[in-house]
């Protein structure tokens, strides 16, 4: 299997885009062939990533080493390389990405939103897959930037073409615009704004690496090594600003309050599959960027920015939860819940401890599974009722027991019920906030912990309230006499794997920690030079 | 005094000149329905001229003629390649456009070839006189071509505005050149560079440089010398607009590049700050004005003003002590090459789209992708490439531009931030075209598909530029050979 060592990641990343090219040659009205090809391609990409999981060496490999590594010259003139590789931090996210993509194709089998056109939709999905998979394995800043940006195009078209056509008021304009048009360009502009500054940050690091190292480089492992040695933290505020530039790029994507305003619009307007992919994978590109790039390369600046990040994260948690309580639209509620959940992820990262970063990774995976499923459900519900207004829904579980049951289960998972996947991320991130990295203000982080805990209560509040409004009570009179078909087989096929994983990770989080713990611990050791206490790491390892 | 003439080095110019004469002769004897032969001739001649260019590039020797006034080095080859390929694509775009509207075909190609010849001469010019002649031969025919749609009042206005402002700027440019000559007693760039090295606080030199910048600023349509551009672009025949925004602008940049880096490197503390300002203004005003446009050609006009701003950005880095001139020079050059490719693509799309929609109003383009998905995809490729979204070629241009100014200097970093904000603003109006084509509901009838299908030559043009846009975007090393050219020139030749 030597060839797989070199080709495994490349296949995982580029197979989907090859599939997109193939789809281009299939006739537009041959829907079956289109769908089968897309399914085949995504399934193969998933299998390739499973192959990586199997071939992955879980034994404590030294810090900053990557497996399935490929390093080929790409743009020789600026020393940017096609450098991909994987470690314990990116492995769960890569698998999440390929996995959810397969389910998304299955779900879309009989769920085409107006104006249909499966060919275009599937092509966009496959391009998106390449962008997302690529971001998780890129080990070169330029390559990372390219993949990070590639996802914008397909998502822009997904929201813009298949999105919500209801008119809405736009601040500053007299006339109303269709939601999809507003949401699509807002999403694009926000993300591009962040990534333009991120690019400036990358370039600044590139030049600085030439001053402190042998030659200018975009190579993430090389920069990580320099960063761990404190090479970028000279006098002056250079590194502080560079971290700020990167922060802007990643924080928009996560999104962190107050840069989050594109998210509720984009999520609500996007077609179901678009929302699922956006929530399940795309948001993670930002938080992953913090762990892969910002923290290891600029550790000292990360520490000085940490309290600020923690404060924003907690505001996000509280703000997201309160906003959820004010929603009448089910999909918008789920969208705002992402702001809260990603707040926990960022709080975990901000503690700069191994337990916090582990929490954030499992939080990302759990959020991907749970919120992905919630968006599937919201899509199916609005597909049947043709409304997402919770006031008009109600008694759903009586009309569609299976769908209602799954919704109840997922809402419980989302509010962090112990025994389900959502618990670990929230719980551990709060634990880590009690005891952040030495030197970080205990006052800030413990206050954050308390407020975060309040946030979990609020989360439970809005999730249960949503359940109450959607699932419980008597069906509204307007649905009387209407027949609703319960979950169909494509929905079932797409959802059951998610449900299983939510339970498995809930009971046995080690499936994730097994991969992440070593990588995270060594990252924290190398970057922040702390001896993590035995008690905390045993908690992590013991699950 | 005898001159050694290397005919191989001059072959591209000679072939283009020969084609020009052949077109002129042929035009006299052809009956009206056969006039399309002039177009074929022009296309073939341009393609043929690329051959000796390839030979010269492989040999890779720097050939200097006429006592250093006329040099064929890598920079000249790159620029000549750009001019020829761009002209080739413009010819392909013109073919159907000119023929179907019964314009004077023979003269049209004759004038375009003349302009092309001028730009080829310019790329090799290494003294003020040759440069000036080249620049004027490039621009002169365009005054006529801008007014080619004689029956259209807008085209007349386009030609008039371009002519009057063009002549004015030429006069100022010439005045600047004469001051420079008066100060140094030299016309060759090498001589001027030597003579000005101790003159940097001479007020006359400052005047000369500012005058030169006004002249070149007009050619590249940088703010505040841009007022002619939107009206001329809108009124001129669309292929000519493409030519203006690519070849003519590139010619202006060639002049700016070689004069600043070769003749006046010692005065970079005068021109770099001034160009800093020009870049910031062009980007910001170009982009903000583009936001308000409803006509796609006017939108591209303002976009090309803003893009000129992006291309000027690297110049600002030259004033920083210890700056990497090669990187700055290379960044502008790479941007220019990539811009040429994607902007030609955008105009080819405009020509094809305008046939379908019978309009240049963006609103009328609504829903175009439904009747012609391929044209829709191409619109997406070129306009997103102009916005700098990976994996399309435009990202690398922007990337190199940012890279050239992200050096430890507050002024250039401030410019980088301005450029970053501007690239976000730019996305909005580029996306507006894509929104109309892909996301909006059709508002009007489209022309009959069979009749309005793009002609074969236009399809070929689109094919060439889309392949280049994608190839450079995915594997930018293709474009970095341009850097070799930069090394030659920025290091003083």
Give a concise summary:
The complex is a heterodimer of chains A (543) and B (493). With 543 residues, chain A is mainly alpha-helical.
Break the fold down into its secondary structure elements and pairings.
The complex is a heterodimer of chains A (543) and B (493).
Chain A: H1 2-24, H2 31-55, E1 67-75, E2 80-86, H3 90-107, H4 118-137, H5 141-150, H6 152-162, E3 167-168, E4 177-178, H7 179-212, H8 220-228, H9 238-253, H10 262-269, H11 272-297, H12 299-325, H13 330-350, H14 354-385, H15 396-399, H16 401-414, H17 422-434, H18 442-470, H19 489-507, H20 510-528, H21 534-542
Antiparallel strand pairs in A: 1-2, 3-4
Helix pairs in contact in A: 1-2, 1-4, 2-3, 2-4, 3-4, 3-11, 3-14, 3-19, 4-5, 4-6, 4-11, 5-7, 6-7, 7-9, 7-10, 8-11, 9-11, 9-12, 10-11, 10-13, 11-12, 11-13, 11-14, 12-13, 12-18, 13-14, 13-17, 13-18, 14-16, 14-17, 14-19, 14-20, 16-18, 17-18
Chain B: H1 7-29, H2 36-59, E1 63-65, E2 70-72, H3 74-100, H4 105-124, H5 128-146, H6 153-184, H7 189-196, H8 203-219, H9 228-235, H10 238-263, H11 268-291, H12 296-312, H13 325-357, H14 368-371, H15 373-387, H16 394-405, H17 410-439, H18 449-452, H19 456-474, H20 481-490
Antiparallel strand pairs in B: 1-2
Helix pairs in contact in B: 1-2, 1-4, 2-3, 2-4, 3-4, 3-10, 3-13, 3-19, 3-20, 4-5, 4-10, 5-6, 5-10, 6-7, 6-8, 6-9, 7-10, 8-10, 8-11, 9-10, 9-12, 10-12, 10-13, 11-12, 11-17, 12-13, 12-17, 13-15, 13-16, 13-19, 13-20, 15-17, 15-19
Give a structural overview.
The complex is a heterodimer of chains A (543) and B (493). In chain A, strands 1-2 form a two-stranded antiparallel ribbon. A two-stranded antiparallel sheet of chain A has the order 3-4. Chain A is built from 21 helices and 4 strands. Chain A is mainly alpha-helical and 543 residues long. Chain B is mainly α and 493 residues long. Chain B has 20 helices and 2 strands. In chain B, a hairpin with a 4-residue loop joins strand 1 (63-65) and strand 2. The interface between A and B is medium-sized, with 34 and 32 residues.
């Amino acid at each position: 299997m030597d060839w797989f060592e070199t080709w495994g990641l490349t296949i995982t990343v580029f197979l989907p885009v090859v599939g997109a090219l193939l789809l281009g040659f299939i006739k537009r009205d041959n829907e079956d062939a289109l769908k089968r090809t897309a399914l085949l391609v995504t399934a193969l990409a998933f299998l390739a990533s499973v192959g990586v999981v199997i071939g992955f060496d879980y034994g404590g490999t030294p810090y900053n080493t990557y497996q399935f590594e490929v390093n080929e010259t790409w743009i020789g003139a600026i020393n940017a390389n096609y450098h991909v590789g994987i470690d314990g931090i990116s492995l769960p996210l890569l698998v999440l990405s390929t996995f959810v993509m397969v389910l998304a194709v299955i779900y879309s089998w009989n769920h085409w939103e107006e104006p249909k056109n499966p060919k275009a939709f599937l092509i966009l999905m496959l391009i998106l897959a390449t962008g997302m998979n690529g971001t998780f394995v890129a080990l070169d800043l330029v390559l990372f930037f390219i993949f990070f940006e590639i996802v914008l195009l397909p998502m822009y078209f997904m929201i813009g073409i298949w999105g919500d056509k209801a008119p809405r008021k736009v601040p500053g304009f007299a006339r109303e615009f269709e939601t999809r048009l507003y949401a699509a360009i807002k999403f694009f502009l926000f993300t591009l704004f962040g990534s333009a500054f991120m690019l400036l940050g990358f370039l600044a690091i590139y030049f600085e690496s030439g001053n402190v190292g042998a030659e200018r480089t975009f190579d993430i492992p090389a920069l990580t090594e320099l960063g761990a040695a404190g090479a970028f933290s000279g006098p002056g505020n250079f590194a502080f600003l560079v971290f700020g530039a990167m922060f802007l790029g990643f924080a928009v994507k996560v999104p962190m309050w107050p840069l989050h305003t594109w998210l509720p619009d984009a999520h609500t307007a996007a077609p179901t599959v678009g929302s699922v992919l956006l929530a399940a994978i795309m948001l993670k590109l930002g938080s992953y960027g913090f762990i892969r790039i910002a923290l290891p390369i600029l550790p000292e600046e990360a520490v000085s920015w940490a309290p600020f990040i923690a404060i924003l994260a907690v505001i996000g948690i509280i703000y997201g939860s309160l906003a959820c309580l004010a929603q009448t639209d089910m999909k918008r509620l789920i969208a705002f819940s992402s702001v809260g959940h990603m707040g926990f992820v960022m709080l975990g990262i901000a503690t700069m401890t191994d337990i916090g970063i582990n929490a954030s990774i499992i939080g990302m995976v759990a959020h991907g599974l749970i919120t992905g499923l919630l968006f599937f459900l919201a899509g199916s519900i609005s597909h049947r009722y043709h409304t997402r207004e919770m006031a008009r829904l109600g008694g759903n579980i009586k009309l569609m027991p299976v769908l209602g049951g799954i919704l109840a289960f997922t809402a419980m998972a989302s509010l962090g019920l112990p025994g389900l996947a959502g618990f670990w991320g929230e719980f551990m991130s709060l634990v880590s906030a009690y005891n952040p990295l030495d030197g970080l203000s205990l006052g800030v982080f413990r206050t954050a912990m308390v407020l975060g805990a309040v946030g979990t209560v609020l989360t439970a509040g809005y999730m249960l309230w949503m359940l109450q409004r959607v699932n419980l009570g008597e069906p509204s009179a307007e649905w009387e006499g209407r027949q609703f078909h319960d979950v169909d087989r494509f929905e079932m096929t797409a959802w059951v794997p998610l449900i299983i994983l939510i339970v498995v990770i809930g009971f046995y989080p080690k499936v994730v920690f097994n991969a992440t713990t070593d990588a995270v611990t060594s990252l924290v050791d190398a970057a922040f030079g702390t001896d993590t206490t035995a008690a905390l790491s045993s908690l992590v390892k013991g699950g | 005094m005898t001159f050694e003439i290397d005919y191989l080095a001059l072959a591209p110019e000679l072939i283009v000149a020969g084609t020009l004469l052949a077109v002129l002769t042929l035009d006299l004897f052809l009956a009206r329905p056969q006039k399309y032969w002039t177009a074929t001739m022009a296309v073939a001649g341009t393609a043929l001229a690329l051959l000796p260019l390839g030979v010269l590039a492989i040999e890779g020797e720097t050939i200097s003629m006429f006592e250093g006034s006329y040099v064929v080095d890598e920079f000249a080859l790159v620029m000549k390649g750009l001019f020829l390929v761009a002209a080739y694509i413009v010819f392909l775009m013109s073919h159907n456009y000119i023929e179907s509207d019964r314009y004077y075909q023979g003269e049209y190609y004759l004038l375009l070839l003349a302009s092309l010849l001028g730009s080829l001469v310019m790329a090799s010019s290494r003294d003020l006189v040759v440069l000036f002649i080249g620049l004027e031969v490039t621009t002169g025919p365009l005054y006529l071509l801008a007014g080619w749609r004689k029956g259209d009042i807008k085209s007349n206005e386009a030609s008039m505005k371009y002519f009057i402002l063009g002549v004015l700027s030429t006069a100022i440019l010439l005045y600047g050149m004469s001051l420079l000559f008066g100060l140094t007693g030299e016309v060759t760039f090498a001589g001027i560079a030597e003579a000005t090295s101790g003159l940097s606080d001479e007020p006359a030199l400052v005047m000369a440089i500012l005058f030169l910048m006004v002249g070149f600023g007009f050619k590249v349509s940088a703010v505040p010398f841009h007022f002619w551009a939107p009206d001329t672009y809108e009124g001129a025949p669309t292929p000519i607009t493409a030519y203006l925004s690519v070849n003519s602008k590139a010619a202006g940049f060639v002049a700016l590049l070689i004069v600043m880096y070769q003749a006046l490197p010692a005065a970079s503390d005068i021109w770099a700050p001034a160009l800093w300002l020009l870049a910031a203004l062009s980007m910001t005003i170009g982009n903000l004005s583009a936001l308000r446009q409803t006509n796609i050609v006017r939108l591209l006009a303002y976009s090309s003003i803003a893009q000129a701003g992006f291309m000027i950005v690297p110049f600002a880095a030259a004033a920083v002590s210890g700056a990497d001139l090669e990187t700055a020079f290379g960044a502008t050059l790479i941007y220019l090459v990539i811009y040429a490719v994607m902007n030609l693509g955008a105009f080819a799309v405009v020509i094809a789209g305008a046939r379908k929609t019978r309009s240049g109003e963006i609103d009328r383009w609504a829903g175009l992708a439904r009747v012609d998905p391929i044209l829709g995809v191409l619109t997406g490729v070129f306009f997103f490439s102009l916005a700098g979204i990976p994996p399309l070629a435009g990202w690398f241009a922007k990337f190199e531009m940012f890279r050239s100014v992200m050096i430890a200097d507050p002024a250039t970093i401030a410019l980088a931030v301005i450029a970053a904000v501007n690239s976000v603003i730019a996305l909005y109006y580029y996306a507006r075209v894509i929104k109309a084509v892909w996301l909006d509901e059709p508002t009007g009838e489209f022309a009959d598909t069979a009749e309005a299908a793009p002609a074969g030559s236009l399809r070929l043009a689109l094919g060439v530029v889309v392949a280049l846009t994608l190839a450079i975007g995915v594997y930018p090393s293709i474009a970095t050979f341009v850097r070799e050219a930069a090394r030659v020139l920025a290091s003083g030749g």
